[in-house]
Amino acid sequence: MLAHAHLPSAKGSGRTSTVEALNWSLRHRCGVLVRKSCSFSESLTLHHARIKICIDNHNKQITTV
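^ that's the sequence the OP posted. Answer follows.
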């Protein structure tokens, strides 16, 4: 992450809740982001592919609503 892109948010700005909502949504939909013992990927390529599928599905759902 770029240093200038990672800046703290002011309290009450609402920016953190947006990020946390996205993080919750991804953890809810993608088992590999929850716990290592629940669902694990055998390779880094599969890990990235599963996360990409979850992100693509999430983006598709929020744009069609």
